[in-house]
Design a protein that fits this description.
Layout lengths: L8 E5 L8 H14 L4 E9 L1 H12 L7 E5 L7 E8 H10 L4 H16 L7 H18 L2
Parallel strand pairs: 1-2, 2-4
Antiparallel strand pairs: 3-4
């Protein structure tokens, strides 16, 4: 009998939000790294408030605005990915309403967005944003079928 190793993806909740099927979600997020040909050591998702994400944004990135996600890659180049990802539950809820999608759909889009950043996708230029959105949609559709 073989023992499977759990995916090295962890969820921490400073602010509550429903996150269903966590075991399957962790395996799916882990599979994205494999599909994108990136090695993973660990990812910590920290679900928190607008206030906390704004503090992190100001302190570490010198940005003075709210955002739904901040992804920190902590590993050295060429090494398996180590990351802490901060997600504003407040922004996810607001963005879901503004985009007329469910909170679960928006939450998963943001989770996949963070993973895609770690896989090398950017979102600064119009072309990069289009590519990132296409990848998000691709993984969302596969996840929710």
């Amino acid at each position: 009998m073989s023992v499977s190793t759990p995916p090295p993806i962890h969820f921490f909740f400073e602010k509550k939000i429903a996150l269903q099927n966590r075991t399957y979600l962790k395996a799916y997020l882990s599979s994205i790294f494999k599909k994108e040909k990136r090695k993973l050591e660990y990812v910590n998702f920290i679900f928190t408030s607008d206030k906390h994400v704004l503090e992190v944004n100001r302190k570490y990135l010198q940005h003075d605005y709210y955002t739904d996600i901040i992804t920190f890659e902590l590993s050295s180049p060429g090494q398996p990915i180590q990351s802490d990802i901060y997600i504003s539950v407040d922004r996810v809820r607001d963005n879901a309403g503004q985009n007329n999608v469910s909170i679960q759909q928006e939450l998963h889009r943001v989770l996949f967005h963070g993973i895609l950043h770690l896989c090398g996708y950017k979102d600064k230029s119009k072309k990069d944003i289009e590519r990132m959105r296409a990848k998000e949609e691709h993984y969302l559709k596969k996840y929710f079928i």
